[in-house]
Amino acid sequence: MHIHARALKYFDMIRRCGSIREAARRLHVASSAVNRQLLQLEQEIGTPLFDRMPGGLRLTAAGEIFSRHVITVLQDEHRMTSELDALKGMRRGELSIASVEGLNIGLMPNVLSSMATRYPMLRLAARTTGSQQAAQLVADGDVDVGIGYGIERSEALRQYAVGRFLLGAIMSPEHPLAAQRTVTFAECARYPLILPGPGLSIHTQLRPILVHHRKPLTVLLESASVELAKSMALRGVGIAFQTRIGIEQELQDGRLVHVPLTAAGPVVSELGVYVRSGRSLPAALDAFIRVVAEELARRESGEPTLGDEHGRG
Hints:
Elements (H helix, E strand, L loop, with lengths): L4 H13 L2 H8 L3 H15 L4 E4 L2 E4 L1 H27 L5 E7 L7 H12 L3 E7 L2 H9 L5 E5 L7 E10 L1 E4 L11 E2 H4 L4 E4 L4 H12 L6 E5 L2 H9 L5 E3 L5 H6 L3 E6 L5 E9 L6 H19 L12
Parallel strand pairs: 3-4, 3-5, 8-12, 9-10
Antiparallel strand pairs: 1-2, 5-13, 6-13, 7-11, 7-12
Helix pairs in contact: 1-2, 1-3, 1-4, 2-3, 5-11
């Protein structure tokens, strides 16, 4: 079987777009050329790679298998280019990152600044997503690395670094619960709440606790934005829930208090760094993972210790 690189790139763009016409537009070639490459590819493989649906193209079972091969080939091509450039002393290339919103205040700026210093000619592309979306983008080969909370283990992903952080109730220093060392959800539920919306890992983590809480709740806001929830907590209108990541400055300034949540022990959120399984790490990606791992370890060391259970969830 002899499959040319152009056919792989055309196939990958069709996979991403779900349309030959849109793939052709992004590739800056005629639709007929893209369609011809696809037909030749399917003839070479001996089976259709896409189902032709009224709403566009959808991968067949064979297409799913072939797509995993294509993603590996194209990412290895990027790795080779990066390593050759590094030999020339150029350090050129691209690194694409998907991470959750709460990291944009302190953690990600620290990591990206370090990368910009180490690889000044490397182009970094960062996007903000939910944790599960970050994982899916990595698995699909749409980004090089994803950082998120509570990402489920998967054969498609490999975890390269992790930090464990206490999930807590955040509130103004004047709140009646602010002086406590720990707090239960039942104690928080006596006051107005700002709850995480679906799509946030905190929502998934709190769901079992909410299910077992039988008494009525006063919910002022449910939001998938941790920044909005933080802003509302800063105004003193309710209790929100998150880790200390992303609110370090407010804690240092005394504008917010973070009280660890307990439910038969500390409630711990895992913040992990993920790359697609089987992928070779180019120099820039390996360096990025190391920088994030160092940043996670530094922040994890500053977490309060709540007895022997800390860090085990």
